[in-house]
Amino acid sequence: xxxxxxxxxxxxxxxxxxxxxxxxxxxxxxxxxxxxxxxxxxxxxxxxxxxxxxxxxxxxxxxxxxxxxxxxxxxxxxxxxxxxxxxxxxxxxxxxxxxxxxxxxxxxxxxxxxxxxxxxxxxxxxxxxxxxxxxxxxxxxxxxxxxxxxxxxxxxxxxxxxxxxxxxxxxxxxxxxxxxxxxxxxxxxxxxxxxxxxxxxxxxxxxxxxxxxxxxxxxxxxxxxxxxxxxxxxxxxxxxxxxxxxxxxxxxxxxxxxxxxxxxxxxxxxxxxxxxxxxxxxxxxxxxxxxxxxxxxxxxxxxxxxxxxxxxxxxxxxxxx
Amino acid sequence: xxxxxxxxxxxxxxxxxxxxxxxxxxxxxxxxxxxxxxxxxxxxxxxxxxxxxxxxxxxxxxxxxxxxxxxxxxxxxxxxxxxxxxxxxxxxxxxxxxxxxxxxxxxxxxxxxxxxxxxxxxxxxxxxxxxxxxxxxxxxxxxxxxxxxxxxxxxxxxxxxxxxxxxxxxxxxxxxxxxxxxxxxxxxxxxxxxxxxxxxxxxxxxxxxxxxxxxxxxxxxxxxxxxxxxxxxxxxxxxxxxxxxxxxxxxxxxxxxxxxxxxxxxxxxxxxxxxxxxxxxxxxxxxxxxxxxxxxxxxxxxxxxxxxxxxxxxxxxxxxxxxxxxxxxx
Lengths: 321, 330
Known about the structure:
The complex is a heterodimer of chains A (321) and B (330). Chain A has 321 residues and is α/β, with parallel strands linked by helices. Chain A is built from 11 helices and 12 strands. In chain A, α8 (223-235) links the parallel β8 (217-220) and β9. In chain A, α7 crosses α8. The termini of chain A are close together. The model of chain A is unreliable at 14-23 (pLDDT under 50). Chain B has 14 helices and 6 strands. In chain B, α3 packs parallel to α5. In chain B, a hairpin with a 2-residue loop joins β4 and β5. The longest helix of chain B is centred in the C-terminal third of the chain and has 27 residues, at 209-235. Chain B starts with 9 loop residues before the first helix and ends with a helix. Chain B has helices at 10-26, 43-66, 74-89, 94-118, 123-142, 152-159, 167-184, 188-197, 199-204, 209-235, 247-257, 269-289, 296-311, 313-329; strands at residues 34-36, 39-41, 146-148, 161-162, 165-166, 237-239. Chain B is globular, with a radius of gyration of 21 Å. In chain B, the strands form 3 sheets. In chain B, strands 1-2 form a two-stranded antiparallel sheet. With 330 residues, chain B is mostly helical. The interface between A and B is large, with 38 and 33 residues.
């Protein structure tokens, strides 16, 4: 985020807080995890935008990665008698007692981005999350459609071993690709979700697969690893995006930059807009009493070079990624 | 055999040869080299290039460990200096960028050295402070994002080549020669070893142990800064969350594999760098092997254990007895 944008965003937030809550206006407390990643920062700024669009007074509490801070924030929201509470839970357990307090105060709770322990299902109204198995499947389907009938050797850059997102994105992709016998994942290693590791692992894949000649496509569990892999391919004299197809997940601004330069082919968006659907669900619940489904799945949208990547890059880069 | 070859360094050289041989088995093209756009291209070059950050860290770490200290903050210092370099790269020239980043590393080293040498804190605790706080400082500099840059000068530091060799490798080699010339070309190395061997006795004998300890932490900070700049230049961006993460442990491991005792005293710069190369040869081999990533850490642990057993005098004693028993039976 540029200092100017930061200033504008904080000025907007200050303005929002300063506005007196009018009669019909909803006040919602949002306990955000923190800002551990660019995506998280983007989620916070998109939440502010979505709230402003609907003239909702959104109070954001940054928990700095600590559950006790989130519990404190929820208690303070209950004390302020807000209309609803949004919670992006840092861990999946230990929420029962504080969510019971919210339930007793008749304040609906909506989970954003992550789910919590199944024992607490009746304690929240709905959860707005992305389906990471589906994300992997969207990536796999795109590749199968693009490659067509010809044989294609795929190399895969996995996320951190043991992370559920990595396991799910692998599962979804594998299932989609398994339907096409001409597609084969020949190598799969972890790049720990980072650029540096993505680059290092791709360098070794290129050497192991005849200087990259045997590789037809790269699938990375996140865009950051793909950005590293693209550098490795370029340094090896290969042409990513043309000789080697790329597909990754997240849709961070830098992958659109690569796409605009013709060096990346596709990305599946993990939308930072979790608050939008949550706000709509709360509005319908408050106005008409419509009870939303327990799980609202966000759209896993596919972006390719046909979607004017430069424009998307410009619109996304100010969000804090 | 031990009588014919120098005792010191034998275990490390043997270990490197064995791991290289295993790499050749799992990946037949391991030793292939070719020229690609004026730079050498092949797995061996990858080993050298990817091993550079840990090799640089181990150059500073080995001196710190020789004084009976330890520096846990090097990974965080890498993140800070990489973040500084990336933030300045597109608005300032390379000399300014390097001066700022290396200056920050020097300050970090001075801080650690001050806590250990002047305030007398235990090194593991003193450097833990910067290990934790440093990553936070780096995140503040980058505002939690990956700061990218396109300055060709800084990119060259990570991806350029000199006479076919990657620039990072040339820098690491230069630093090894420079450090070696300073500590072994003078009595400095001996004084560092004396400080680590017995600080009190050295103090009484007139060695300025405080100055020694302070200066090794400063040097360690500068080496970490250089590693951080190279890591950022490599990916054309500073990733404060991940740059140098856990690399302090690899650097300590490299020093230990290089035969320097954590109890201080005698040290070897060349063997520490060799230790870093052993670690990277193993890492690259694992990546080339095609084993599922769940095995990475297990394979690494087994190899490290084997290398350390090779160095253990008690273990070679046991092996000798076993060999003699077998011979008498036959």
